[in-house]
Sequence to fold (217 residues):
Amino acid sequence: MHQYATLEDTLYFGFAANLTSGAAGDGATPLFDVRLCGAAADAAPVLSGTPTLLTHANYSDGLHEVAIAATAANGFAAGNTYLVFVTLTIDSVTPAAMIGSFRLAPVPANATQLSGDSTAADNAEAFFDGTGYAGTNNVIPTVTTLTGHTAQTGDSYALANGANGFVAIKGDTAAVKTKADSLTFTVAGQVDANIQYINDVQIQGAGVENADEWRPV
Fold:
């Protein structure tokens, strides 16, 4: 019997034991060994165990069931084919037989969560199935090469990135603000000024009529 199963499945095989006379008999010390097909002749079995003797009244003597847990933890791998051998001692002899084989396929996966997060699984599906995923709060690494991108040129590019671009404008605006912040307005809308020159002529005086009038130096 050849079976097809998935990695992590449990496979079942059966066999019957008979006395040398031909009658059914239980025998003793049954054993099964599972071999990887194509392995070296002296390779150890992938898994060994004890078949179960069936004891219900409906079963005759000598009927056994072999259960094989074909898990990765037991040394099995997807894509491989395995043989199942059994032996037992009966009537002072130890006959052996190959009772079947099986091939394992990968475990089918349907991820409903990623790291315990069902929303992450839904977002991944939207990204890969072409329906589109508009990511938010995503951290994008530095992009060194952007394929299919048309390089920016022309006036808008120069305005944004040139010597008089946004960075330069920001610096100039900050400098103007610094100067403006240094002005004093005792009366709203009127700049406090200390006049020292008129038409390039230096003047003196406090502007007090008939006392300390403004006049050239």
Observations:
- The chain has a mean pLDDT of 88.
